[in-house]
Amino acid sequence: MSLTKQLETLDAELLGRFGAPEQLDGEQLQALLDERARLLALLLEQEMLSPEQVGELMERSKQLKELAEHTRQQLAEQLANMQKGRRSVGAYQKIKHQE
Question: Whole-model pTM?
Fold first, then answer.
C-alpha cells in the first residue's frame, strides 16, 4: 500500500475515533498520531506529493485538529459536570451526617 493510501486510511481511523470520544484510549490515540507523523515525514522526505495531494493532506489535518479540539472540549465539559456532581454529593452527605 502506498504511503498516501496508508495515511488516508489512518486519517479515516482517527476521524472515527474522535467521533466517539467516550471510547478514546489515550495510548492508542498517541500511537496513531505518532504513526501519522512518521508517514507525513516519509512523504515529505521523498517529495512524493503533488500540489493536489498536499492540499488534501492539509484539509484532512485541519479537520483532524478541529475534531480533536472539539472532542477535548466535550471531555472537559463532561469532567467539569462529574466534578460538580461529586461536590454536590459530598455536600449532601456532609449535611445528612450533621442531622
Answer: 0.67
